[in-house]
Each structure stands twice: as C-alpha cells, then as structure tokens.
Fold these 2 entries.
Entry 1:
Amino acid sequence: MPKRYFSALKIALIYALIAGLWIVFSDQALEAWVGNAGHLTQMQTYKGGFFVCVTAIVLFVLILRTLKATEVIHQFDPLTGLLNHHMFAAQLERKVAMRKPQQMLVVVYLDVDHFALLNQEMGFAQANNILINFSRVLKSHYSANVLIARFPPDQFAIGFLSDKTAGQIEADVKALKQLFDKSMLEQQVESTCTMGVALGPEDGKQAKAIMEAAATALSQGKLGTRNSFYFFNKSLSELEYQRQMLVKDLRHDLAQERLSLVYQPQYRLSDGAVMGVEVLIRWNHQEQGFIPPDVFIPIAEEQGLSQAITRFVVRRAYQELNEHDLLGQEIKRVSINISAVEFNSRKLLDALLIEIEKIPVFRQYLQIEITETATLNNIEQSAKIIKNLKQQGLKFSVDDFGTGYTSLAMLKDLPIDEVKIDRSFVDELDGETKAKAIIEAIVGMTHGFDISVIAEGIETQQQLDLLRDMGCSEGQGYFLARPMGIADLSKQYGKQRVPS
Ligand code: C2E
Ligand code: CA
Ligand code: CA
C-alpha cells in the first residue's frame, strides 16, 4: 500500500479517536454541568454546532495546504525550482500583454549539448547537479522580472522584455552563453550549449508562437555547428519544415521498402555486348511523385540513412536479378553506388560487408561505385579501404572521374578495377576539343594501369563513335539504353548489340 494511504488513514483514525472522545466526554461534562433537561438538549445542539465549526476549519486548512502543494508541483520544475513549461508559457503571455510598443519580447532556449553523454559518463545524480548549479547561476544573475524555466531533461528557457536594439540583445544572448561556459568551467565539466532565440512580435505575436520560433531556431542550430546561438529565421524555417517532412517520409518509405530500383545496362563498345548494369534507386513519393536521387540521397546521407539505402539496394537488386535469372549469363557485373559518408566510415563499410556476406553468391558480381571526390580526402586511407574490399571479392569503380583534379595520381595509388569518365566530358565531346583531349589522356593512362574505362551519359551516335575511336572500352547512356525496371531489363537482356 503506498505511503500516502497510511498517512490518510492515520489522520482519519486520529480524527475518529478525538471525535469519539469528544462525544463521550463532552456529553458527560455537559450532563454534570447542566442539571435542567430542557437546557441540556439546547446545550447539546450548541455543542454539535461547535463541533461542526471546528471540523470545517480543520478541513479548510487541510484542503488549502493540499491545493497549494499541487499548485507548486504544477508550476515549478521539481529538480531546479525554476518555472516549468506550462508556467513559462502562462507568464510569457502576461509579458506579451504588458509589452510596450518600443519593447521586444526576447525568448532564448538553451540546450546542453550531448547531455545524454554526460548522463552516461557521470551518472544521473551528478548530471542533475550540474543542471541544479546552473539554475542557481541563472537565478542569481537575472532580476525577478526575467522568466527562467527548465524544460526537462536538458533545456532552459529565458524570457524577458527589453528596450534594447537587436544588436544589444545579441550581446545579452552572448552573455548568457558565457554564463553557461563559466558555470561549466567552475564545475570542471566539459560541456557546451546551443541556443535558439526568437523575438516578439517579429517572430510571433502570442507567447506560444514565440516559444515555437525559439524552439525552431534551436533545432536549426543543432543541425549546424553546436556551441553557438541562432536567431529564428522564417524562410529557413519553412524550408527546414519541408525538409524535415521529406526526411520523415523517406525514413518511413525506406522502412516499408517502398523505394524501387532501375538498372542501366553498360555495353562493351567494340562489339556491343552487355557487360553489366548500374543499379539506381528510385523514390516515388506518395504525394509529391518522383523525387530524384540527387535530391534525397544527400538528405539521406546527412540523416544517417545511407547505410539503410545501400542495404536495401543490395538486397532488392539481388532478389530481382535472381528472380529473373539474369545473373551470370548476360549480366556479369552489378554496380551499386555508395555515398562518400559510407566509404569513409569504417563502421558503415563493415555493415555493408556483413549485408553482402548474407548473399555470398552475389559478391562475385558486385562492383562498388564511389565518386572521385569521396576518395580524395586521404588517398592512403582510401587505398587501404579498397584493398580490404577487394580481398572480400568486390570490384571497385571510381565514378565521376576527371572532376577531382587529382585524377591521374589516383590511378597510380588506388587498386581500382574501373574508372567512369564523368558525364560532363562526354557531353562536351560533340564540339569541344579539350574534352576530347582529357578523355584520350584518361583512356591512355588506364591502359597503362590495366584499369577498364567506361564513359557515362552517352546521348548521341557521334559521342559513341568518338569514344569507340578513342579506345574507350565501355559505355553507358540514354542513347544505348535508359535505366529500366527489372521487367524491361528481363525482356531486353537478349538485346546485346549497340544501336548503330
Ligand atoms: P551517378 O552515379 O552519376 O548516376 C548516373 C546518373 O546519370 C543517373 O541519374 C542516370 O539515370 C543518369 N544518366 C544515365 N544516362 C544518362 C544520359 O545519357 N544522360 C544524362 N543526362 N543522364 C544519364 P539518377 O538515377 O538520377 O542518379 C543520380 C545520382 O544519384 C547518381 O549519379 C548517384 O550519385 C545517386 N544515386 C542513384 N542511386 C543511388 C543509390 O542507390 N545509392 C547512392 N548512394 N546514390 C545513388
Ligand atoms: Ca554511379
Ligand atoms: Ca556518375
């Protein structure tokens, strides 16, 4: 039984005892005191009335105390004694009403960076102490007119009316940041904070709108560089909202495997034989329709979804190609794209390998395409990564080759199987002689290194002829075949000759 039941029972029993004793002894006393029977009845009525009055007063005091206690719980944050979210909003609304025309209502949200990590490292009690100490600093720094709140677990909010200019307000916000930094230094904790700032009436007329604007500014800030402060930006916030919606939908559709794949054949230019396919992902958004990978892949990378995308691509490509019995005879090579983030993360690459290990028969067909710029960070490191992947039986292609300026050096140091000449050079082939010279140079170099070379984005007969004449071994592009679904690929796989 909870403790409060015992307390309530104890009070009720004490009351019953006192009331019982009162009835017995007061009746006896009254009888002894009042001899007249008529008077006795009247006195008993007064006695009953007195009892009712006393119990009513006791009840009143008890209820008042309980109500006060619940009010405190509903108004203040129990850990720090600062205002809670509800009271902050209510009192901010009062400030909105009090605001003089020349004044601004400033709302700052302060979020402790990586608080979860602090919790993990120091334990809850110690991490809570940090918050309590900082709340004390806030209380002693600001006057009583300033609203200070804590929004669990690790956010603080400050709201005040100011006659200052926007520039001066920025100085105040900076001062708050310094207050935080100093408090952390004094507590010998390595912690930073990110802040979002909104100004009323510019960013919102009602308290709720200004608070929402401050929260948006904070979440925008947290996506960027932390340990800083960010003022609310309306147009950014609308874009951000759309982006967040897109991220949400992408996560959902990815989990439900509602994306699909297309395959673009790659041909040997000397005889038109199909050498392989490049797998390209497609997202048909339920409301917005087709969203190009150029739009959602960078978002996916940023949101840590690239691994999920690659896993989906590997699994679905194998499932479809295998189901249509396309692997082995016509299609000897399946190229998939991985993002730069994945390539440069040991953890993500290991996860990719684990996924591939689940389908050992697929490994011999797989070729990983990675853009040239992704491998530029650190050639030595990249060489190690590629070697490791090759030991696992994978092939390697450098995509968008020629755009990175250090291309030729890369050929020497990276153990790659293929380079893919960037579409922009092929595009300029029709008239430009410079593009032709670059392609010739790439073809010449790759021959020396025993690396095969493929040109992408072939759109005309002339481009095809020129590439073939220059000794480029393979080609891919709309002129040869557009990316297609598995059903079309299956229908056309016998079509091995390059249109001439
Ligand atoms: P990319 O790897 O350079 O892929 C080639 C892109 O060129 C594809 O666009 C393809 O449809 C397009 N293309 C093919 N032939 C021609 C042509 O003759 N002319 C022109 N103008 N374009 C041609 P897509 O499918 O829109 O993909 C765009 C980019 O999105 C890809 O560029 C790649 O970087 C990324 N991407 C696509 N699928 C995936 C994926 O599964 N994973 C990852 N990480 N990235 C992907
Ligand atoms: Ca590619
Ligand atoms: Ca490319």
Note: Residues 278, 337, 369, 399 surround calcium ion (ligand 2) (CB under 6 Å).
Entry 2:
Amino acid sequence: MKRLETLETDNSILQEAGRILREGGLVAFPTETVYGLGADALNEKAAEKIYAAKGRPSDNPLIVHIAEKEALGRIVKEISAEAMKVIEKYWPGPLTLIFGKTDAVPEGTTGGLDTVAVRMPSHALARALIREGGGYVAAPSANTSGRPSPTSAEHVREDLWGKVDLIIDGGETEIGIESTILDVSVTPPVILRPGAITKEMLEEAVGKVEMDETLFSGDSKEPPKAPGMKYRHYAPKAEMTVIDGEIQDVIEEINRRTEEDLRQGKQVGIIATEESRLQYRKGSVKSIGLRTEEATVANGLYRILREFDAEGTDCIYSEAFDSEGIGNAIMNRLLKAAGHHIIKL
Ligand code: TXA
Ligand code: MG
C-alpha cells in the first residue's frame, strides 16, 4: 500500500502504477465516489483478474474509466445527442454512461454484453493514473463481492490485501457512494443506478429521464437492467431493517425493537443522524451524517456498515431518508443492504 499525498510530490508511484496496469496487473486507486480496482480494460486477461480478486460473478460487466472525452471514440459506436449533453454538463464526474461498444472492448470487460459502461472521473489522481495506464482502465469498486464499497484505502486493504499488485492511498473519498449509471443507448435515457448526479440534474440537461423502477421493489419479477444491481451488494453481516415514518415515531419504534433484541441477547446497531442520535437509549448508536445535508449521509453509509460488521452486530436498524435528490441513491443502497426489508409506520 502506498500513500500519495499530492500528485506533485510523488510521480514515481504513479509511474509504477501505470506500468503495472500496462503489464496486465491490478491497481486499487481512489476516485471521487469510491475506491476502484483497476486493470487495463482493453486487455481481456487483465480484466479477468479483477473478477478473480473480487470473487465477482463474471456476468457482471465492468465500467471503463477514461481520462479525456476524446478517448470515447475508440470504444463506443455512437454518441447520441442526449449523451453529448450530459457529457458536456457532468463529465468529469460521478456519472457512468452506457453505450453500444466497438470491437476494441473485449467481452471479458463487458460480461458478454454488446454495450459498455464508461466513466470519466473528476478525481485528478485517478485521471493521471488512467493516462499512465494506457487510457482505458476497467474498475469496479475495490471491495470483495458482497461487501460494502470501500471509501478508504484501509477498506480496500481489509478486502483485497495480497490479491492486488498495488493499493494507492489517497485518503477518504469525497462522495462515498458509486456513480450514477445512465443508459444513453435508449431513448429516453434510463437511470440504472442512482447516485450523486440525480434524476433532477440529468433532466435539466436532457429533458425526460426514466428510472429503472425494479431498483426500489424487492419482489419485482424483472431483474434490474444493470446486471450488478441484482446482487445483494453492500450487505452487512447483520440482519438490517429500515424504519420509515414520522421521525419521532421511527425513533420510538427503533428504541422499542432495540430493547426487545437486547433482552434476547442480540447485539444491536442503530443508524442515526446528527439530529437524532441522542434520542436513542441503548445499542451501538452511530451517526451517519446530517439529515439536513444528505451528501454527508451518503458519505457515511458504507463506513458505518463496515464498522457494524467489525463489531459483530446481529441486527441493524436504520432511519429512512427522503427519496428526493441524492436521498434517492441513499435509499437505494440502504434498501439493498437491508435486502429490501423496510417497515412503514
Ligand atoms: O463510482 C463508480 O462507478 C465506481 C468507481 C470505482 O468508478 N465503480 C463501480 O463499479 O461502482 P462496479 O463494478 O462496482 O459497478 C458497476 C455497475 C454494476 O452494477 C454493473 O452491472 C453495471 O455497472 N454495468 C456495467 N456495465 C454495464 C452495461 N454494459 N450495461 C448495464 N450495466 C452495466
Ligand atoms: Mg461494486
């Protein structure tokens, strides 16, 4: 694991990382969303190593990361007018776009699909690494499959130590949840995974945008359109329940359930906010962030799930959040972590 404070101070780490990527190896690196596990996207053998290191099902396609917009031409068939508009407005940034792919992208990278997911991160170090590594870096989140995505190099180390050639430590990630995925190969475009670039923001750029509704219903017959969204990702080891309703009722209900579980000898974790945390009487109470500033909630989510795992928590109760704006992405991740177990009061 190597720590990179600033781009200027240590170019040799970047050069070493770039060499590893070009030679077909694996490098974990920070982005503005979560840490990524990078390999040369145009080298089928290298991309396959990612699946082995993560223990990831091979039908789950990878996102190809690029450092400049001009790199897109080589890997995608067509860039629609809608795609141009969102690229103009939100790249570089936490937005992944789905396009028809060219033959330059091996099927090992796209899980056999004829489409490819592409993202241009805003993180300067990530982009410098992509350039050094040849310009096309396939990178899923750098966690073991089924664990919460990593928001620090320490999280990556917990999951992947010994399985990757290099981990670059660039501190904690800024956003804390994965990029929004927008399918621009169809009209109107469809959000396959909500994130920090919200539906409202996308609609500002292109007009009507749809949401893959299967993401919010646990019992839908249709699988989600992004293959990875069907797995119970981000799963804490504990049984998790989201409680939704008027905040005072939610707090009372969580306190009541906590008492009951503690009597049965269980270890209980509570996901509270800065505003509510002092109202919980028992259990391991953790503040996820400020309810009035939901970006802080997104930022704390995966770290907290990992902390509860480390404590050996048996059950977790979480307050619900508004599903407007980034709250939509927060609820999507919380519901997935809870296996869609939600109680509406
Ligand atoms: O923020 C992010 O996007 C992070 C950082 C590292 O950039 N990466 C990330 O990758 O979250 P990953 O592999 O954990 O999630 C990629 C998601 C999966 O749900 C996958 O199924 C979906 O993108 N995906 C990839 N290619 C696709 C395609 N061609 N069509 C539909 N979904 C696709
Ligand atoms: Mg992931």
Note: The first strand starts at residue 2 and ends at 3.
